[in-house]
Amino acid sequence: MSSDRHRYAITGRRPLSGAVEVAGAKNAVTKLLVATLLTEDPCTISGVPKIAEVGIVLGMLADLGTGIEWVDDRTVRLTTRHIATASLSEAYSGVNRIPILMMGPLLHRAGETTIPLPGGCRIGKRPIDFHLAGLRAMGAQITEQPRSVSVKVAADGLRAAHITLPYPSVGATENLLLSAVLARGTTIIDNAAVEPEIMDLILMLQQMGALVSVEVDRRIVIEGVPRLRGASHRPLPDRIEVASFAAAAVATGGRIEVIGAVQEHVATFLNYLRKVGGEFEVTSRGLAFYQARELTPVPVQTDVHPGYMTDWQQPLVVLLTQASGASVIHETVYENRFGYAEQLNAMGAGIALSTACLGGKACRFALRDFQHSAVVIGPTPLRAGPLEIPDLRAGFAYIMAALIADGTSVITGTRYLERGYEDPAGKLRSVGAAIETIPV
Ligand code: EPZ
Asked: Which positions bind phosphoenolpyruvate (predicted)?
């Protein structure tokens, strides 16, 4: 991972007011870029967010032989007439989870590939066993190396399979979709993830000529077709960025209109925001968020869609440090997603972690010694402090903590934040945050 371009110095206790425009969803656009590998025709993606993650994925595609042409500053046209090399450098190992999604498209185009492994990260081990088991069921022969995985397929290509995922994994569902659209026969994915970002990928694949149907009870059926064509697509708006700014508006006692936000994408989040004391309005341009009353605690359990998403957990926890009483948060998607709480406690928060499944039903992490539940006691005034961002979503939680704290907090590790949030400092400044970027 590269180093920080700058630190942020944030002086807190100012209500944020104004409007920001939501960017295209990071977790959709990166998959749409991979989908372009499935055709020799040009594909155009518009509404591309200006985030570091997009640059990384475009670099990977360029290495594989994709022609990349910017039509304007948010629209990119990608053409992969030929695969120049079907393997990606091990230097990408541990960088992100996108190369593993390229396995299916590269098998269709070249019959074999070697792909760098994503590695674990600070929020959990994040294995890829579901991905590999699914591809094996489709006829791929897989050899695992310490930092990469080599995959090949017989001359007649991938074949359809009936795959039941052990858990509705977003990445594994996307991987199997990208593999099955050009496979021989009809693939069934049971216990599939159905996040809006997956629906967005399906819409692009449908435009390209794929036959995908989303059925009841988490079943996705993919009838393989022999060829896909080019398409033009705009990713859905980033529902994590929407929730992040919503939580910041409520936590600071201000009002932020998020231009381009769509109520349907954040409906579950809105219920919890309201239970805590926040409110929203549908405006002509998007959604506006503000604090409606004194903040009160809630029990929350993160889950796969349509549940309360794990990437909305961190801004909510910071908000709950300002609610009067005890809130319980049970994280059921990742085993290790509360590591950021320690630095919040150093600022004055009262967050206690537990290995028990608190406030909900037993999850996959029951009796497994992971600190995956938190009790937040509030309200606690926060003091400014030095903050080192450990991962992308914890990064926004620290920004929020600094925005409500007394004094000036200096935040490092901003590279993690800028991987997935578009111009966070600029957007926050535009709604009145006292945020200074200090080059390093
Ligand atoms: C995607 O990760 C997102 N990343 C994550 O966003 C998001 O938190 C997550 O989905 C859940 O919504 C991208 O889209 C790039 P999963 P993904 O496979 O696909 C376990 C962010 O900050 N699992 O649904 O990797 C896994 O360990 C992030 O933007 C296996 O055990 O998530 C986890 O506990 C972080 N074996 C659970 O499933 C597997 O083979 C859910 O993971 C695959 C997953």
From this structure: 26-27
**Using CA atoms, how far apart are residues 438 and 425, in angstroms rounded to an integer?**
11
The CA–CA distances, whole Å, from 106 to 6, 87, 103, 187 equal 37, 8, 5, 18
* Domain co-membership, 289 together with 417: yes
Number of domains in the chain: 2
pLDDT in tens, 227-264: 999 999 999 999 999 999 999 999 999 999 999 999 99
Distance CA 18, CA 428 (A): 10
- CA-nearest residue, atom 25 of ligand 1: 171
d(CA 438, CA 440): 6
Q: In what order do the strands lie in the sheet with 67-72?
A: 67-72, 75-79, 43-45, 232-233
Provide the phi-psi class of 280: left if phi over 0, else alpha when psi is between -120 and 50, else beta. beta
Phi and psi at residue 241, to the nearest 5° = -65, -40
20-52 confidence digits (pLDDT tens): 999 999 999 999 999 999 999 999 999 999 999
Q: Domain with 224 in it: what CATH number?
A: 3.65.10.10
163 lines ligand 1 (CB under 6 A): no
- Cis preceding linkage at 306, omega within 30: yes
pTM listed for this prediction: 0.97
Q: How far apart are CA 312 and CA 240, in angstroms?
A: 6
Instruction: Check pLDDT > 80 for residue 124.
Output: no
Other beta carbons less than 10 A from residue 272's beta carbon? 19
Tell me the catalytic residues: 121
CA 161 to CA 103: how far, in whole Å? 16
Q: How far apart are CA 240 and CA 253, in angstroms?
A: 20
Ligand 1 mean position, distance from CA 379 (Å): 32
Q: What confidence tier does 120 reach under pLDDT thresholds 50, 70, 90? A: low
Element at 151 (helix H, strand E): strand 148-152
Q: Which domain holds residue 173?
A: 26-233
303 is in an annotated binding site: no
- Together in a domain, 241 and 229: no
Picking from 177, 200, 233, the residue at the C-terminal end of a domain is 233
Residue nearest (by alpha carbon) to ligand 1 atom 4: 27
- Is 50 a known ligand-binding residue? no
Contact 222, 38 (CB under 8 A): no
Is there a contact between 119 and 93 (Cβ–Cβ < 8 Å)? yes
**DSSP code for 22:** P
